[in-house]
Structure formats: structure tokens, C-alpha cells
């Protein structure tokens, strides 16, 4: 008798847990708010501005998804995560999606049961050193003290790089970007290593940015992209195609300036029409309405505009498009067709 | 004529489980037990169910895979190709190092502060009060971060030691370098060393034991044994003749000469740190993270220990001291022979929990990047393998084992010093 009661309760509990895990898109709609995990302050990618509003390249992805799903780019709860806490936050359901310059790797995708929905920044790991050290190549760093954010792929790349080149180093593990800056600027480490984009972003905040150089070696491939939990494919599709919509919009010449005009009626280009919902039923297939992509693009413009506004060459971060140009311009960005 | 009748036999009725005080407590306990088991079953089942939903399995296979990350402070030889298990072991040793160092310094500082707080000197007593209140009432994490910030910001970087006219110079006749990356002190080297014994072959738990150290410990042990013998002989002579032979020079000789001979035979010399490339090389590197953590944990816990010591001393009635004085004992001896042995009875039990606190607080090490077991097993390994459940469970188990061991040792000591009651 006692046993059967326990089993009964356990079964109900199990069913409840199973039911709660399904349908992130519905959860988000019911909640009226998107919980989006971001970095805890990387200028240009995700950091709160003077008014406490989150701004940045990764933040823009969250806002675009919120606009597509909830018709409100501000209906986002930004949850700052560290390199260590991000996966637990996503796996436990605390956040609906993670847009925190996270590298797409095999084990994260397959073993950790996440779904990388695409790549919004092609990056690679680099080194920053003070100019005064007179170092011009990463191969000259034998014996150096290296500040590194713990719990990231950079930690593993660093170990491999120094091992392959038969050099020794002293790792100084650090929890957040801000602490890393403090240690690096005080000279407690000679080198700061993270993704090259992060280095540029960090350097941009220094008082004398010119006193620091980013070494030419890029020692790893770091495809960064947003990710969701594995298994909820409907939600994964929503995030994936919102990102693709931003990228495709740039390729198709849809910008925040001309989107109203283009979406007011059917244009000559059927793909633009399908993207903007004036033709076909793409939105319906996603479980959204026809104007989902319009709203996503309206928030901050297409991919190129988001890039230029947050991290582009006009900003203090000053990153060139490089690999992140459209495939038509010799870059790697390539959105599958909207068909 | 009388008839003996049995008292009416009371039949057990179900309602008695609730209304009869004889059974009620048992009923409540059974219900509580069932409730507790249901809760536990629900939690376990939920976990298993959720893991299944995610398609994850629980296992410890990942321990045998290469860790792929480096650890700066390693007491055993380790590189990034070693396994996660070995990385955890290195982390465990780092935890133990800071815990042991912390407990020792916290005890020394705590006892001193506790005694000084009772001082008749107004200023000294007040300063100690300020110290205790300051450290006791600010979270230890802040002290750790604060200590680290001070070390990093106020000390010179190694490059300040470079050049013809360096901004910073080495201390203690050029043997110790104090930098914002840590303190480099001379290391012990043996030019004719005996080598190491390699335990556990090439497994993850391999362990090198230095024969030099063993030889040194054996000689030291022999010296101390001989010193005890000499001292026993002196006591016996004193008993017999009333005169105590002078033995201090024999004792000194016994203590130093054999180990000095051994060290000479092994070719003992000091290795001094020297600036080479980016950093100092040679010497022993006490990293900033270790120093900051050690310092903050010791000072914080010492504040609590000071209060315990003060309470312990105050718990001994004044009559004891007065009686000891009446017998002609000097104040030092009164403290050592009369007050402290009784005070220890009060001091030791709360002291145990402070040692446990210090050890558990050492898991805040990640705030300063000290690679303890929380940083390796519960940090990087957990993050790179994504095995939260396994890593956290194991981590809890490790801390539990450490804490229970500390408790066991301290309880044994407590039993030795407590008053024998009849």
C-alpha cells in the first residue's frame, strides 16, 4: 500500500516535470517575457548602458526574438551569466535562450544537449599584450603569465597552443571580464587572452587603448552563436530563423530605413515578400504571425546594421566585418533561403 | 469469599493511535517518516525523470578523459593531458593546503587576540575589540576580494624589477621577491638528492614521495627521541640527587647536528628566485591567490576564535586563579597549568566548528582564481564536461569527508583534554 502511494506520487511528479519541459515558445508567450541569458558585461556585445538598458550585439538577437514572438522588443528579461553558470542556467530552464558569445563545439551540441541555432559571429582566440613588453608574436610568450576567463573554450585552446609550441606559461583563472581587466591593467598578468572580438571590446574601454596590442595569431576557431535546449525543435526553429531573417535581410537589402515601404505591399522580389510576410505562410509554419520577421528586423535593423551600431568600425570597439561579411562579399555569413 | 477478577482487558482500537498518549508519538513518527520518504522519492524520481527527458545519463566515465586545462598551483606533477580525476586531486590538495595553513594561522592569531582582549591595557583591549568586530561583521568573500585587490594594486609588477635602476628591488638581501603576482621565496634544493619513490605507477593517483624528506623526517624523529631520553635521564637524576644536570647544550646539539650532517650529505642549498623573461623563475612561488585567500580566511576566522578563547578564559572562575596564586604559582604557570587546561574544555568544541567553517569557506577561492577543488572539479571540469550532477555530488562528498575527518581529529583531542568526571 505504502509503496504504491509512493509510486503513484512519483509518477505524477514525473509527468508534471515532463509537461513543464515541453513548449518553450508557448511558455514565453504565456509569460509575456523572454528570459535571455547574456554575458555579464562585455562592451559592444552585452552590457547595460547609462540608463540600465541592455545594449549590444548579442542583446540585439534577444530583442529580435522577443519582437518576433511577443511583438515587443523590450519584453526581455536579461539574465547575466558567467562562463561557468551559462549552461546550467539554460539546461535548468532559467533562461529560454542563451546569446552569450558562446562557441559552438561538438560536445556542447551533442553531449550537453544544446542546440546551436546558427552563428552570429565568427571569432577566434587572440592575445592582447601591453606594447611596452615588445612582444610581436604569440610564439614569444614562453614563460608569460596569462589571464584567462575560466570555464571557457579559451582555457582549453590556450593549454593546447602552449603545449604544441613547447612553451610554458602560468594561467591566472578569472571569473569575469571586469576582473580580468583589473588584473591585466595592474600588470598581474602579461597577457590577456579571449576571443579576438572580446579583446577588441575590452581594449576599447581602456584609458590608453593605444598602449595595448592584439597579437596577429588567432589560435582557434570560435564560431559564436545563440543556443537553446535540445529537444524543443519548435522553439529552436523560431530562434534560428529569427537570426537567419536578420542575415537574409542584409543580403536582400532590407534595412530599418526601407522596411516599412517594402512591407507595405508586395515587391518584385518574391523572397523579400516571403521574408516580410506579404506572400506565403512562413510565419504560420513557425507558429507565429505573418509579420514576425518584419518586427525582428525593425528592432535594430538587419544584421549589418546591428553589427555597425554595436561593434562596427565606427564604434569604439572598431571591429571590421572580416569573416562576418555576407557570402556575397567574401565573408562566411550565409542564410539558407526563405522558401 | 472473594473472587479475583482480572482487570478488564483493554482491546486495541484504531482510534487509540491518535487519542492514546502511549501510541500517539509513534503514530506521528510513522507519519513523518512516510512524509519524508515520499519527499525523497519525489526528488530522486524527478531528477531521474528530468535527466531522461533531456536524454542524459549519469556516470563517472568522464573522469578518465584528459582534462585539457592547466592548473597554476600544483603540488603534484600535472599537465593538461592528465585526467579530470587527477585535476580534481590537485584541486583537493590545494584545498587542504589553504585549509591547514588557515587553521594554523587563525588559531595563533585568534588565541593572541582573545587573550589580549582581556588585557588590562585599555588601548590594546580596544584595538582588539575593533579588530574582532570589523572582521566578524563583514562577509568573508569581501575580505578575500579586498585582500586580493590590495595585493594586485599595491605591489610592483615583475617588470618593475628590471633595468639598471629598477623601481623595485628584492627584499631580505635580494632573496625574496614581493610582486603583484605573488611572493617568490628561496626553495630547498639538494644537489646529491636521493630521488623519489613513485607510488601508484602511471595512474591518475600517482604520487611521488621525496626520499630526502623521508630521510630528514627520520633523522628529526631520532633526534627528538634522543632528546626525550636525555630529558628523562635528567629528571631521574634530579629525583635521585636533587640536582638537575645542565642539559640544554646537549639538547641543542641533538636537535641540530644530526640534521645538519644529513643536509650537508645531501648537498643542501637554497635556490633563489631570479628575474628571467616575463617572470621570476626559481624559488618557490606563493601565488597572490593563495596569499589573499589564506590571509582573509585566517583573519576572518581568527576573529571568531578570539571570542571563543575569551569566553573560555572568562568561564574559569576567579577562585581558581586566586587558589593557584595562594599556592605560590607564578601568573604564567597559573595560566598554563590551571586556567588553560580548564578553559580548553570550553574552547575546543566551538573551535571545531570554526575549523570546519574555515575549510568550507575556502570554497570561495574561485573569487580570486585559486584552483581549489571547487575551482577544478566543481568549476572547470564541471563546465567542460557538463556533468553538473555528478561533479556537485562528488564535491559535496569530498567536503563532507574533509569535515568529518577534521571533526574526528578534534573530537579525539577534545576527549583527551576534557575533565575526567567521576
TrEMBL record, chain A:
Residues 1-21 form the signal peptide. InterPro entries: Bact_solute-bind_prot3, Solute-binding_3/MltF_N. Residues 33-262 form the Solute-binding protein family 3/N-terminal domain. Keywords: Signal, Transport. GO terms for biological process: amino acid transport. It holds the Pfam family SBP_bac_3. The keyword Transport applies. It comes from the Bacteria. Belongs to the bacterial solute-binding protein 3 family. This is General L-amino acid-binding periplasmic protein AapJ. It comes from Ruegeria denitrificans. The gene is aapJ.
TrEMBL record, chain B:
Residues 92-410 form the ABC transmembrane type-1 domain. Belongs to the binding-protein-dependent transport system permease family. HisMQ subfamily. Keywords: Amino-acid transport, Cell membrane, Membrane, Transmembrane, Transmembrane helix, Transport. It comes from the Bacteria. PROSITE patterns: ABC_TM1. The chain crosses the membrane at residues 23-44, 87-113, 134-152, 209-227, 248-271, 291-316, 392-413. One of its GO terms (biological process) is amino acid transport. It holds the Pfam family BPD_transp_1. InterPro entries: AA_ABC_transptr_permease_3TM, ArtM/GltK/GlnP/TcyL/YhdX-like, MetI-like, MetI-like_sf. It comes from Ruegeria denitrificans. It is a multi-pass membrane protein. This is Putative glutamine ABC transporter permease protein GlnM. It is found in: Cell inner membrane; Cell membrane. SUPFAM superfamilies: MetI-like. The lineage of its organism: Bacteria, Pseudomonadati, Pseudomonadota, Alphaproteobacteria, Rhodobacterales. One of its GO terms (molecular function) is transmembrane transporter activity. One of its GO terms (cellular component) is ATP-binding cassette (ABC) transporter complex.
Amino acid at each position: 500500500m505504502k509503496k504504491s502511494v509512493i509510486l503513484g506520487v512519483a509518477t505524477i511528479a514525473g509527468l508534471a516535470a515532463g509537461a513543464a519541459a515541453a513548449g518553450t515558445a508557448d511558455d514565453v508567450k504565456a509569460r509575456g517575457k523572454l528570459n535571455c541569458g547574456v554575458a555579464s558585461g562585455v562592451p559592444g556585445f552585452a552590457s547595460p548602458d547609462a540608463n540600465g538598458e541592455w545594449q549590444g550585439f548579442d542583446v540585439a538577437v534577444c530583442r529580435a526574438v522577443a519582437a518576433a514572438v511577443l511583438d515587443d522588443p523590450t519584453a526581455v528579461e536579461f539574465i547575466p551569466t558567467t562562463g561557468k553558470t551559462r549552461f546550467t542556467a539554460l539546461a535548468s530552464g532559467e533562461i529560454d535562450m542563451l546569446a552569450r558569445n558562446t562557441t559552438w563545439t561538438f560536445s556542447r551540441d551533442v553531449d550537453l544537449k544544446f542546440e546551436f541555432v546558427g552563428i552570429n559571429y565568427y571569432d577566434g582566440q587572440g592575445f592582447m599584450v601591453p606594447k611596452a613588453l615588445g612582444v610581436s608574436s604569440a610564439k614569444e610568450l614562453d614563460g608569460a603569465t596569462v589571464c584567462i576567463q575560466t570555464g571557457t573554450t579559451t582555457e582549453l585552446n590556450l593549454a593546447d597552443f602552449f603545449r604544441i609550441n613547447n612553451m610554458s606559461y602560468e594561467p591566472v583563472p578569472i571569473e569575469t571580464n571586469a576582473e580580468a581587466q583589473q588584473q591585466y591593467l595592474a600588470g598581474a598578468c602579461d597577457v590577456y587572452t579571449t576571443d579576438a572580438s572580446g579583446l577588441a571590446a575590452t581594449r576599447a574601454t581602456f584609458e590608453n587603448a593605444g598602449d595595448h596590442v592584439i597579437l596577429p595569431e588567432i589560435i582557434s576557431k570560435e564560431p559564436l552563436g545563440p543556443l537553446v535546449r535540445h529537444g524543443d525543435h519548435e522553439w529552436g526553429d523560431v530562434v534560428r530563423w529569427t537570426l537567419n531573417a536578420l542575415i537574409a535581410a542584409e543580403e536582400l537589402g532590407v534595412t530599418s530605413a526601407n522596411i516599412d515601404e517594402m512591407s507595405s505591399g508586395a515587391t518584385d522580389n518574391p523572397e523579400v515578400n516571403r521574408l516580410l510576410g506579404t506572400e506565403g505562410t512562413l510565419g504560420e509554419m513557425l507558429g507565429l504571425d505573418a509579420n514576425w520577421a518584419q518586427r525582428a528586423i525593425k528592432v535594430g535593423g538587419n544584421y549589418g546594421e546591428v553589427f555597425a551600431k554595436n561593434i562596427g568600425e565606427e564604434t569604439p570597439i572598431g571591429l571590421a566585418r572580416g569573416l562576418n561579411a555576407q557570402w556575397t562579399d567574401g565573408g562566411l555569413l550565409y542564410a539558407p533561403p526563405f522558401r | 469469599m472473594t473472587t479475583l477478577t482480572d482487570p478488564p482487558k483493554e482491546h486495541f482500537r484504531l482510534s487509540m493511535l491518535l487519542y492514546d498518549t502511549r501510541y500517539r508519538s509513534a503514530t506521528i513518527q510513522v507519519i513523518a517518516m512516510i512524509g519524508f520518504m515520499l519527499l525523497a522519492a519525489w526528488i530522486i524520481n524527478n531528477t531521474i525523470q528530468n535527466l531522461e527527458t533531456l536524454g542524459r545519463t549519469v556516470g563517472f566515465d568522464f573522469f578518465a578523459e584528459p582534462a585539457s586545462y592547466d592548473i597554476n598551483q600544483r603540488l603534484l606533477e600535472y599537465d593538461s593531458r592528465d585526467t579530470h580525476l587527477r585535476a580534481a586531486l590537485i584541486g583537493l590538495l590545494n584545498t587542504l593546503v589553504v585549509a591547514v595553513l588557515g587553521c594554523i594561522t587563525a588559531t595563533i592569531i585568534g588565541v593572541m587576540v582573545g587573550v589580549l582582549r582581556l588585557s588590562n591595557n585599555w588601548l590594546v583591549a580596544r584595538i582588539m575589540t575593533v579588530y574582532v568586530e570589523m572582521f566578524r561583521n563583514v562577509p568573508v568573500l569581501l575580505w578575500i576580494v579586498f585582500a586580493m585587490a590590495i595585493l594586485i594594486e599595491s605591489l610592483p609588477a615583475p617588470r618593475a624589477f628590471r633595468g639598471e635602476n629598477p623601481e623595485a628591488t628584492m627584499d631580505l638581501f635580494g632573496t625574496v621577491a614581493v610582486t603583484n603576482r605573488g611572493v617568490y621565496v628561496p626553495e630547498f634544493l639538494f644537489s646529491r638528492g636521493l630521488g623519489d619513490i613513485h607510488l601508484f605507477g602511471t595512474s591518475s593517483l600517482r604520487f611521488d614521495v621525496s626520499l630526502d624528506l623521508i630521510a630528514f623526517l627520520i633523522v628529526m624523529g631520532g633526534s627528538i627521541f634522543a632528546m626525550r631520553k636525555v630529558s628523562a635521564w635528567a629528571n631521574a637524576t634530579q629525583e635521585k640527587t636533587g640536582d638537575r644536570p645542565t642539559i640544554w647544550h646537549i639538547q641543542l646539539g641533538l636537535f641540530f647536528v644530526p640534521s645538519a650532517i644529513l643536509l650537508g650529505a645531501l648537498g643542501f642549498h637554497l635556490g633563489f628566485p631570479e628575474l628571467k623573461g616575463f617572470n621570476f623563475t626559481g624559488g618557490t612561488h606563493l601565488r597572490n591567490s593563495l596569499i589573499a585567500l589564506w590571509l582573509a580566511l585566517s583573519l576572518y576566522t581568527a576573529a571568531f576564535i578570539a571570542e571563543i578563547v575569551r569566553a573560555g578564559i572568562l568561564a574559569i572562575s576567579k577562585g581558581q586563579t586566586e587558589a593557584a596564586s595562594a599556592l605560590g604559582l607564578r601568573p604564567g604557570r597559573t595560566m598554563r597549568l590551571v586556567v588553560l587546561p580548564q578553559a580548553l574544555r570550553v574552547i575546543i568544541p566551538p573551535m571545531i566548528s570554526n575549523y570546519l567553517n574555515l575549510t568550507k569557506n575556502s570554497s570561495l577561492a574561485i573569487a580570486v582564481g585559486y584552483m581549489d577543488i571547487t575551482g577544478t572539479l566543481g568549476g572547470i571540469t564541471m563546465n567542460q564536461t557538463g556533468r553538473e550532477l555528478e561533479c556537485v555530488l562528488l564535491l559535496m562528498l569530498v567536503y563532507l569527508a574533509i569535515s568529518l575527518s577534521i571533526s574526528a581529529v578534534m573530537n579525539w583531542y577534545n576527549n583527551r583534554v576534557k575533565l575526567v568526571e567521576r
